[in-house]
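Support reply, case 0932

Customer input (verbatim):
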Amino acid sequence: MRIAIQLLVAVLVLWGGCVGAEEPAPAPTPAPLVAPAVAPKDTPAAPAAVPAKEFKVALKKGQRLAIVGDSITEQKQYSKFMELYLTVCQPQLDLHVIQLGWGGERAPGFAARMANDLLPYKPDVVTTCYGMNDGGYAAFNENTGKTYESAMEEIVTRLKKEGATVVVGSPGAVDTKYYHGGGEPPRIYNETLGKLRDLAHKVADKNEQPFADVFTPMETAMVLAKAKFGETYDVCGTDGVHPRPNGHLVMAYAFLKSLGVDGQIGTLTVDMKGQAEGSEGHKILSANAGKVEVESSRYPFCFFGDDKSPDSTKSILPYVPFNAELNRFTLIVKNLDAEKAKVTWGKDSKSFTKAEMEKGVNLAEAFLDNPFCEAFKKMDGLIANKQNFETLMIKQLINQFPRISTTLDKDKDVDAALEVLRKKLFDKYEKFSADVKAAVTPVKHTLVIEAEK
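Our regenerated output:
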């Protein structure tokens, strides 16, 4: 017990940076602060994505998912959106999620720290997002590509050996206005990132693992959104690299698609001359003359903010098929004695044709402000707190363990005490996870369907 206490004190001292100047072992490689190399003017734009082979994830109940990457991951936005979606939109999966983002990291840095920081978690599925720093913020060269591909191969091979499925993610894109002032620098570096995307795809295919193309939907959304809102609308951040919520929603979309989620939140079927039915996760409490009361344990994903701001998840929705492919909460109405009907859900009302309602209306897309928003915001805050703890746990504490062990000559008592500390930290992580899941409470809501003349 004494050595455990002394060890904890030592860790906390190291955490505060009060002992020595040596970096934690292993230290992630920081992104270089250099201007991009100049390529010839006829350098082509980023290459088109190679069609991905269909290596799919079949998520199973209770699995452990780790979200790994550099400072863009450590922003804890796309990782939060992913965990939010998997927790409230697909609660039946009962997944355990952790993020291990590290600012400035390249793929070789994670390959070096993986055994200590990730493998004890025993992940079943791992998503990786490297390449932004690996490209060196310069025109592509073969050495850059070989270093990146080799490190990604090492990561995927080791995780496969440990029994995990790896969703090999590509890097995202840089902003065409804000990266190094726009013009040639972002064009050149997006070409580099496009080539790293193809190398990530190659590693995934070689190892028969799923691939997440993050680069292409980000670049596509950026072109379309800037055409609508103007060049000052950033998708990849005002520093050109780190996205705001709009860009992170696109990243979450890419990874969730590659995780194989089917996007079906639920279906409510209302017979205007009969009863109403709800699919799994949606219990009909009452139904009478077009008024339906429902209790739902599965939430649609909710969006917030100004529909013209990069700080808003709403603003990017027209340029990424998040609702159509991942967020289908469908209302089907039968036996409507009119060509149109008004649907009221929460505070908002909208009109739909009879044909639209017979085919099915996606409530999550049609009603962005809906009865789930308040509960969704609460979950957003809880998951943000949980992921903040994960960063502290991994970066400030667990990552120090090899250094402490080496400093104290790999003493058996020290190593045993470190494992006790690791267990206590993961116990606290599990408590955060349990509290998040317990907070997902059913939402009661009412739909009113009225025929219009």
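We compared this against your earlier run and they match. Two observations from our side: The mean pLDDT is 91. The CA atoms of residues 11 and 404 lie 8 Å apart. Please reopen the case if you see a mismatch on your end.
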